[in-house]
Specification:
Elements lengths: L1 E7 L2 E7 L4 H13 L7 E5 L3 E4 L21 E2 L13 E4 L12 E2 L3 E4 L6 H26 L1 H9 L3 H21 L8 H7 L14 E7 L1 H8 L15 E5 L1
Helix pairs in contact: 2-4
Length: about 250
């Protein structure tokens, strides 16, 4: 079992790194051993959501400096596992958005710890439906791109009937592809149990690599996420950290 102590100005947090995500585990351990994180800040804090750190540019950063773009000169291959999800206390890798990072590769150093919220059963059911609808929309958009030339031609000719017929065909094909994929777009019983008891951020599942979890000091995470912040979500009073292996 691999554990790391994150000593912050508001208390200590102990995280356990998952063996199921060896690329992220080994990279995090390498950086900890190098002292890479020592003196860095939790530079982005959003109440009821998460706390983010790991930007080397945050070391000694003056007040008001924009942070969040620093890191080593590499990214990490995504290790997104359905069974490792964003429950409260989850340790995950930050990354750039899909528009510039479709492979969902992780930052080489920046990470976040989830806080989130506790959901009601009805909210979970609604969320599961939204996830399925999002999958349908993604499949529809992909098919529409394949028929882009046809769609432009119909629009030029003001062929509303043709556009409507094609739309109905693509919707049916999208629904079929989602169903035949065999993927479950709802939440698993394990996810539902976690999100309705301890809480978390289920909308991030499948999008970011979760590679560990808090074993001790969750109350410290709670304290940090409640910090007063400035524009840009940086705490008004710096929350710095050092890390050691246990």
């Amino acid at each position: 079992m691999t554990r790391v102590k994150i000593q912050t100005t508001l208390g200590d947090i102990v995280v356990r790194l998952y063996d199921e995500t060896p690329i992220h585990r080994d990279n995090f351990l390498k950086l900890v051993k190098e002292g890479y994180y020592d003196g860095t800040l939790f530079h982005r804090v959003i109440k009821d959501f998460m706390i983010q750190g790991g930007d080397p540019d945050s070391k000694g950063a003056p007040a008001g400096k924009q942070l969040g773009t620093g890191g080593p000169d590499y990214t990490l291959e995504a290790e997104i596992k359905p069974e490792l999800f964003h429950k409260r206390g989850a340790l995950a890798a930050a990354r750039q958005g899909d528009e510039v990072n479709p492979e969902k590769r992780s930052s080489g150093s920046q990470f976040y710890i989830v806080w989130g919220q506790i959901y009601k059963e009805g909210q979970i059911a609604q969320l599961s439906k939204q996830m399925e609808m999002q999958a349908m929309q993604t499949a529809f958009n992909k098919l529409a791109m394949q028929h882009r030339a046809d769609i432009l031609e119909m629009r030029r000719n003001r062929d509303q009937a043709g556009l409507y017929a094609l739309q109905e065909t693509l919707i049916a094909e999208a629904e079929k592809s989602v169903k035949e994929s065999g993927k479950s777009y709802g939440l698993t019983p394990e996810q539902t149990a976690a999100y309705t008891t301890v809480g978390g951020t289920p909308h991030l599942d499948g999008q970011y690599t979760v590679f560990g979890e808090v074993e001790e000091g969750l109350e410290v995470v709670g304290k940090i996420q409640r910090c007063a912040t400035m524009p840009g979500d940086r705490p008004s009073e710096d929350v710095s950290m050092t890390m050691t292996l246990l």
